[in-house]
Amino acid sequence: MKVGILGLAQTKFGELWNKSLYDLLEESQYRALQDAGIEPKDIDGIFTGNMCGSIFSNQTNIASIASDILNRNISSIVVEGACASGGLALRAGILAIESGYHDIVLVNGVEKMTDIDSKDGVHGLSSALSQDWEHISGATFPGLIAMISRLYMHKYNLTRDQLSHVSVQNHSNGLLNKKAHFRKSITIDSVNNSTVIADPLTLLDCSPVSDGAASVILCSERFAKNLNKELVYIIGSGNATDSLAMSQRDNLIEWNATKVAAKRALGMAKINIEDIGVVEVHDAFSILQILGLEDLGFFEKGSAGKFIQDNLTSLNSKLPVNPSGGLKSRGHPVGATGVAQIVEIASQLYNRCGDRQINNNIKIGMTHNVGGAGANVVVHVLKRE
Amino acid sequence: MKVGILGLAQTKFGELWNKSLYDLLEESQYRALQDAGIEPKDIDGIFTGNMCGSIFSNQTNIASIASDILNRNISSIVVEGACASGGLALRAGILAIESGYHDIVLVNGVEKMTDIDSKDGVHGLSSALSQDWEHISGATFPGLIAMISRLYMHKYNLTRDQLSHVSVQNHSNGLLNKKAHFRKSITIDSVNNSTVIADPLTLLDCSPVSDGAASVILCSERFAKNLNKELVYIIGSGNATDSLAMSQRDNLIEWNATKVAAKRALGMAKINIEDIGVVEVHDAFSILQILGLEDLGFFEKGSAGKFIQDNLTSLNSKLPVNPSGGLKSRGHPVGATGVAQIVEIASQLYNRCGDRQINNNIKIGMTHNVGGAGANVVVHVLKRE
Fold first, then answer.
1. Which chain A residues have a beta carbon less than 8 Å from that of B127?
2. Is there a catalytic annotation at residue B353?
């Protein structure tokens, strides 16, 4: 597989009171076109990740909005896989290119989350849990992930400070990202002592509710070759699922869908995990960055907390993790996140990240996007060539 | 393009009080596997059309349910395009096969609509209108389509009886379909005199709110050839969009997205509209069957009502339309409809429709699936070879 990345864009993430879902999508799409140096007429398909426009914005049928913004009547669909909607939209766009029926496609992720009351917010987000087994009993994401945190801390002696270090590091990176929701340095103490959401998780263990959009323009290898310039390509795409209800799994602190998706993506790219030089991991909660890094294969199970604490995943380490600030600091407009991860890794490989640019010899990066509590995981491998 | 159809299934459509979304999907998926004579292990990807599980069933992340039902961890996504979700999921599945990364995929459409209060029903369905321009002003689908009906009746002298004939014919076909929501003969008088929903539309001009699921198993041409048997193939897929808000269009009674989607599908199939021997048209409201048949190219604009009245689209005519009973009689579980249309046309081409089987010399059929008020249209062409 080899699909070229022609253009990248991300709106500011945050509480954007003066921007509607339409505004966000419009800004993101046109910036991506501008970045690619192409016109709306060059696009022949649109794939938009959106998790819950129905509840958050009273709006389904967003595919039509996406093409209408470009004043085009091209093929356009919305892809949903909860918080993995963006990464899955990218995958659908890749398959469309590889099918030979599309040459240049626009992939969006978008979510407008703040313009609702909190009851609708919880309702929308909890719809990604099993309604039959989890949500119906009152379980919410923070509650379930708190249990996972406890279990992991108990089994692997993860300390509270180590857990806090995840958020501290992400905020440290996000401070350098002008598009991030939170640009604020935090300390171990501030994470430890912030409001308890679901013990042991505090407010600063949890990614925020954000508005935002991100867009990527993909092209076929044939088109890319004619450009005759260095390009970042997607060379691997892996998607795997697990039972929606966590209660139906054997192991709550090893997420099989991450393992399988990573294996598929790496296999397609014909590389090993050691070849990855930078990764965006789905840190919806601090513990999930630890689980993610282990299940992707970067660290032995039970060891990631120590490595993070020792700064072996910071911006200038051998394995920079979440240089964008991750979901915690960059923000988490759920349908946009997976595409924003691609924007970040591709931007890093293009050496366009300014203050937060990692070592520019790194040529291969990875993204890890999760829908639900490990229910649907999509992993992509990107390479500059 | 040539993608084989290996297996077909549709649950009963209707008010299925003892079936959950999970139950519907489970029944549909396993019946399709059984019909194809394959095992869950043979499937390597799932594409599920669902419009509004979030509001109707408190459930997003249905992709994970679909793969979990098969006890598989394969790639699985949900595709949304309002009432075209099913047809668009099929298109995504086709592209996945054509990409070469998938060999046998399962395409589902599912919606559980009846287990909610009517406020949520209206809220969910209206989310497919433009929130910014239509829904916010209180417009709903029946209201907007009523205006379209008036305009068309005025411009082309369509009579109330002709409009009613659409529903009468669809009910006449659905009477022969054991899976249909309504199996009841109706008359011109009963349509004319049923409760007014939005003048001139009466209750019997409107498709119902239904529960149901449908599934199709697709395979690559390479796989199909090894089977060495006559198969129905998808040979054309066209998808086109229009502005989401009807107010931003030049013409309300010619739907450009249908025209363009049909042109694309026919072009891909390398055939003309005259080659089509049977069609499932998206009759969410009676007037839309008339618009659809004209915009697809079967009849001159303004003439379809007369042809329908003259029984030139009935089951044993030269162009049987909606042999399943259409959305009006078979039912309209919104995310399932597009896949149910494929199930019907493929079943007709396989000569498996029993009492409602059309002339068995017909080899080419078409489906027409619409999201919103002409905002996203997907057309497929099927051929027995």
1. 53-54, 58-61
2. no
Chain A contacts of B98, Cβ < 8 Å? 99-101
The secondary structure of B106-147 as a DSSP string is EEEEEE--SSS-HHHHHHHHHTTS-TTTTGGGT--HHHHHHH
DSSP letter (8 states) at residue B364: E
What CA–CA distances, in Å, run from A361 to A6, A27, A229, A354, B277? 21, 31, 18, 15, 60
Q: Which of A322, A332, A269 is nearest to A293 (CA)?
A: A322
Confidence of residue B102 (pLDDT cuts 50, 70, 90): very high
What does the alpha-carbon distance between residue A143 and residue A177 come to, in Å, rounded to a whole number? 30
* pLDDT for A117 beyond 90: no
Residues 6+ apart with CB under 8 A from A292: A255, A258, A281, A282, A283, A368, A370
Residue with tokens 């075209």: B84
CA–CA separation, A245 and A374 (whole Å): 10
Question: How many Å apart are CA B216 and CA B36, to the nearest integer?
Answer: 9
Cβ separation A256–B124 shorter than 8 A: no
Residue B220: in which H helix or E strand, if any? none
Q: Give the distance, in angstroms, between the CA of residue A61 and the centroid of all CA atoms in the same chain.
A: 23
Cα first-last separation, chain B:
14
pLDDT score, position B120: 87
How big is the A-B interface in CB pairs under 8 Å? 203
Query: CB-based burial of residue A249 (10 Å sphere; 0-12 exposed, 13-18 middle, 19+ buried)?
Result: middle
pLDDT band at A119 (very low <50, low <70, confident <90, very high): confident
A4 Cα to chain B: minimum distance (Å): 15
Token pair for A196: 């308890």
A369, β-bridge pairs = A378
Residue-wise pLDDT for B9-37, tens only, equals: 999 999 999 999 999 999 999 999 999 99
Residue of B83, B206, B219, B353 marked active site? B83
The three-state secondary structure class of B335 is coil
- DSSP label at residue B65: H
Residue A302 C-beta-side C-alpha neighbours within 13 Å? 5
State the DSSP H helix or E strand holding residue A206, giving kind and residue range, or none if neither.
none
Q: Which helix (H) or strand (E) holds A321?
A: none
Among the partner residues A63, A80, A242, nearest to B78 by beta-carbon distance:
A80
Read off the pLDDT band of A279 (50, 70, 90): very high
Dist. CA A206–CA A379, nearest whole Å: 22
Using a CB-CB cut-off of 8 Å, the residues of chain A touching B122 are: none
Q: Find all residues with CB under 8 Å of B382, minimum gap 6, and list them.
A: B5, B232, B233, B234, B235, B342, B345, B346, B349, B364, B365, B366, B367
